[in-house]
Each structure stands twice: as structure tokens, then as C-alpha cells.
Design brief:
Structural class: mainly beta
Number of helices: 2
Bound molecules: zinc ion
Radius of gyration: 20 Å
């Protein structure tokens, strides 16, 4: 069966960044199931899967622009530590949810703590990263009506 819209596809993949570091991978025997044509995957990855069939293995590289965006320097800010009230110890790598200027909730990561200054980054963790997927198609089946109606796999 060829991968096309309204097929449920199971893929095994390894995702590495531009330096070859593994960012994510499926476990053996636990592929990722998704509904093709329902925006379940990054568009560049879904496009590369169209027309493939079980057993096909391929590599696709997705630029930051086609992936999670480029790094926006405006989303990296230095704040006084006094703004982090109620937190005993602020350490690099900590994640917070914060209300941005627009009122929208943003996920921010503490990048660095220098004295009384905390540098936070509200970019997506994969912003600026080239995504190199190595993909194997494990299974393809027809989606059922409720899956198509909901836009995801059941
Ligand atoms: Zn559903």
C-alpha cells in the first residue's frame, strides 16, 4: 500500500541535528503512528513520506525555516533574579511557563544565571536546528472514518 492521504502510517525514525547528535528516536517495536495528510507531522517530513511503502528507508533534512523556525533574538532576555519570586534556586536548564508581552503563555528555558541576572530563552527548543530524519516505513493501512473525522490515529 502506497502512502497517501487518509492512510495510517507507522514509521521508525532517528532524528539527529546538524552535528549528528541524536535528538529523538523511536524504540524498537514501538513505531510512531500518524494519519497522513492531517498535519500530524512537520510538512517536510510528511511530503517526503508521500508515495513511499512498507520497507522503504530514506533520509530527509529539514531546514530550521521548514522546521521549528530560526532563533528569534528578541525571545532571549536577561531579567533580574528578583522576578523569579518563590523559586529557591534558579539553575540553567529549568523550564517555566510565563506570560509574554502579548498575554500568550510561552515556554521559557533558563539559559544562564550570572549573579543577579537570569538569561531566559522563549524560542522553541528546536529553533535554529536542522532536523535530519532517517525514516523506515513499518506499516501502512487505511484510516477508518472516525480517524479521518478526528484527524488523528486511534
Ligand atoms: Zn479521536
Amino acid at each position: 500500500m502506497i502512502i497517501a492521504n487518509n492512510k495510517v502510517v507507522s514509521i521508525a525514525f532517528t532524528l539527529t541535528d546538524g552535528q549528528g547528535t541524536t535528538l529523538d528516536e523511536t524504540e524498537t517495536g514501538k513505531p510512531l503512528d500518524y494519519l497522513h495528510g492531517a498535519d500530524n507531522l512537520l510538512p517536510g517530513l510528511e511530503q517526503a513520506l508521500t508515495g513511499k511503502e512498507v520497507g522503504d528507508n530514506f533520509q530527509v533534512s529539514i531546514t530550521p525555516e521548514e522546521g521549528f523556525g530560526v532563533v528569534n533574538p528578541d525571545l532571549i532576555q536577561s531579567l533580574p533574579a528578583s522576578q523569579f519570586e518563590g523559586i529557591d534556586k534558579i539553575e540553567p536548564g529549568m523550564a517555566f511557563e510565563a506570560k509574554g508581552a502579548s498575554g500568550k503563555v510561552e515556554h521559557v528555558i533558563v539559559e544562564a544565571v550570572e549573579g543577579d541576572t537570569v538569561r531566559i530563552n522563549a524560542n522553541h527548543p528546536l529553533a535554529g536546528v536542522t532536523l535530519n530524519f532517517d525514516v523506515t516505513v513499518v506499516a501502512v493501512r487505511e484510516a477508518d472514518e472516525s480517524e479521518i473525522a478526528h484527524g488523528h490515529v486511534h
